[in-house]
């Protein structure tokens, strides 16, 4: 709201251009419709445009297609060159590492890292079982009519004064939807005797990362690193990371996390302010932004 208020204030005071620098774009995970849920990312894009923004500089959107929600230019910078440089300089014997995708959906990002580092690739497949049987699904809507007084819809009173007959809405029988069944979490690829480097764009709830690390340890990985652009690390994430089999969590400074670092020494920070500053300078001077996207893979 503060950003929207400031943008609207600038718009009403006849600013020529209003450029928002938003390193971590909020609600970026809510960019697809799940069942009949709202696409909050589209709503936020519309609000920013309505408030008066004319350009946005951000970093590592959850899905690159989010840029299509906006009616003005969006520069989606990448943090991967900084994270790859950290791997090469700070991880001893990184040549013996394997890049791990936490799910098949993030395999393209992991493949991009693996190809540039010339390392192997492993993919986690499967998930923990989450039952949807107890979730409300609206099958009782509309509800059947209850007994009411004669004269209301759905009731008939025979002329002889016998029992009342109650009618209800006919039930709509839909085909049975087969539930999607995934196997327990397994590793596709060899991680035995290797350093496992898990790459992702956001690390917030760390339970899945901790479970992935435990499975990698069981498969023989002797060190486990996590590389992520946005380190939200909410709730008790620092404590869970400290007690886990993960050796190091490397995130950029797109989101402040000084408090989490005090609680968990495993969290390391990579500074990406340089590329954001250069993007601001080039945008202000009307220069080309292509230099900031050189050697960036399509799937990065």
Describe the structure.
The protein has 300 residues and is an alpha/beta fold. Helix content is 27%, strand content 19%. It has eight helices and twelve strands. The chain has helices at 2-12, 40-51, 80-90, 107-117, 207-218, 237-242, 258-263, 273-285, and strands spanning 19-22, 55-59, 74-77, 97-101, 120-125, 155-156, 165-166, 186-188, 195-203, 223-231, 248-252, 267-270. The protein has a seven-stranded mixed β-sheet, with helices on both faces. A three-stranded parallel β-sheet has the order 1-2-3, with helices on one face. It has a two-stranded antiparallel sheet with strand order 6-7. Strand 11 (248-252), helix 7 and strand 12 form a beta-alpha-beta unit. It starts with a helix and ends in a 15-residue tail after the last helix. The model is unreliable at 129-134 (pLDDT under 50).
Q: Topology, please?
A:
Layout: H1 2-12, E1 19-22, H2 40-51, E2 55-59, E3 74-77, H3 80-90, E4 97-101, H4 107-117, E5 120-125, E6 155-156, E7 165-166, E8 186-188, E9 195-203, H5 207-218, E10 223-231, H6 237-242, E11 248-252, H7 258-263, E12 267-270, H8 273-285
Parallel strand pairs: 1-2, 2-3, 4-5, 4-9, 9-10, 10-11, 11-12
Antiparallel strand pairs: 5-8, 6-7
Helix pairs in contact: 1-2
Largest sheet: 7 strands, mixed
Assembly annotation = single chain
Question: Which overall shape is indicated by the principal axes computed on the Cα atoms?
Answer: globular
N-end to C-end Cα span: 31 Å
- What's the Cα radius of gyration? 26 Å
State the secondary-structure class: alpha/beta
Average pLDDT figure: 86
SSE succession: HEHEEHEHEEEEEHEHEHEH
Proportion in helices: 25-40%
The total strand number stands at 12
